[in-house]
Design goal:
- With 225 residues, the protein is an all-beta fold.
- The protein has no helices and 13 strands.
- It has strands spanning 2-3, 13-17, 25-30, 52-58, 61-67, 73-77, 85-89, 108-113, 120-124, 132-136, 143-147, 200-202, 208-210.
- A four-stranded antiparallel β-sheet has the order 4-5-6-7, with no helix packed on it. Strands 1-2-3 form a three-stranded antiparallel β-sheet, with no helix packed on it. Strands 8-9 form a two-stranded antiparallel ribbon.
- The two termini are 45 Å apart.
């Protein structure tokens, strides 16, 4: 079983026959669209895709345990791997038990059955203990929207009033979205004139050593407020 990111949430669960490991064969494709019982409720953001999977034989049946992000965990019967059958799924409690978020954060990342197969232990990939939002105050898209922040950025809750305002918003694009294959012309970097070689001076070991070349200071990177 593999995850196919090119077919996220449509047929991203690919099941392969690897009887001949040098010639794997696709025998089934499935996804959340085939499991009505797992489609609601979804957690915050309603992002659904296969993130991780475990296959294990339990009480005579081959079961797949799928970590399916905001849909939680999904169990499939794989006795006939060419025809996977939906068995059950989990739902995140609303509001969230630990931090009280509603809707719950979700982000089902990975899970395993316990040794006696009575329970499933799952982990979430939560990026922050707080939930961030931003507001557009004017224009056709005015409103409040959810957002996220990484741990390597300045945390908003450390700023005065735990907020910041920007007079101008710049669209940076979708990082994973395909764009046109056309490429913009690339300007070649300007060449620097070569410096004459530095005079050689004998070192204490008798070998010739050159004086170090002076480096130009690097330009400071742009900063975003």
């Amino acid at each position: 079983m593999i995850s196919d990111d090119e077919e996220q949430a449509t047929s991203d669960v690919d099941i392969m026959d690897i009887t001949d490991p040098s010639n794997p064969t696709l025998i089934a494709e499935t996804s959340l669209t085939d499991w009505p019982g797992a489609q609601k409720p979804l957690a915050n953001g309603e992002t659904v895709f296969l993130h991780d999977m475990v296959v294990k034989k339990i009480r005579g049946h081959w079961l797949g345990l799928l970590s399916y992000w905001d849909a939680g965990w999904v169990i499939l019967n794989l006795d006939n791997p060419a025809k996977p059958v939906f068995v059950n799924d989990s739902d995140y409690p609303d509001p969230e038990k630990l931090l009280g978020f509603s809707p719950p954060e979700g982000n089902g990342h990975q899970a395993e059955w316990t040794r006696n197969n009575r329970f499933i232990v799952g982990t979430d990939e939560d990026f922050s203990p707080t939930r961030t939002s931003f507001q557009i105050t004017a224009g056709p898209n005015a409103g409040t929207y959810g957002a996220g922040q990484f741990d390597w950025t300045v945390q908003i809750d450390t700023l005065p009033g735990k907020t910041f305002e920007g007079a101008k918003t710049v669209w940076a694009g979708s990082g994973a979205k395909r764009t046109s294959t056309a490429t913009a012309p690339v300007t070649a970097p300007r060449s620097r004139p070569r410096r004459p070689p530095a005079p050689m001076s004998p070192s204490s070991s008798g070998a010739a050593a050159s004086s170090p070349r002076r480096s130009s200071p690097a330009s400071s990177p742009d900063t975003t407020r």
